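Operator note (shift B, R.M.): manual run for EF-hand domain-containing protein requested after the automated queue skipped it. Running by hand, logging everything below so the morning shift can see what happened. Input copied straight from the record, untouched. If output looks odd, do not overwrite the archive copy; leave it for review.
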Amino acid sequence: MAIMSCFEVPVQQPDRDMSVQEFKVWIKQFDMDHDKRISTEELTEALESLHMWFSSWKARRVMKDADADHTGFIDNKKEVEKLVKYAQQRLHMKIHQKS
Ligand SMILES: [Ca+2]
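Run finished. Output pasted below as returned.
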């Protein structure tokens, strides 16, 4: 807590089904430096918050899959969509499509 005292927005735990929109809001909370893109470190934090094992290894796998233009960040709409798909299919997160 003390380390990130400048960032005291309570992190919402997705302990239930989420819509894609809710997932996007949730993942945005981990954009610690507010540069509007998700780095591997920030993704690791997100997975850790879900108590996932091997979160940094998983984060690198996710990044490899979702970072389509190889910038090292999830930084555009298409990549976020890929992240959603990966989370659903490989991380077994319950994210449902809702228009
Ligand atoms: Ca990218």
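Quick read of the result: Residues 1-7 have pLDDT under 50 and may be disordered. The pocket of calcium ion is lined by residues 67, 69, 71, 73-75, 79 (CB under 6 Å).
Leaving this for review. - R.M.
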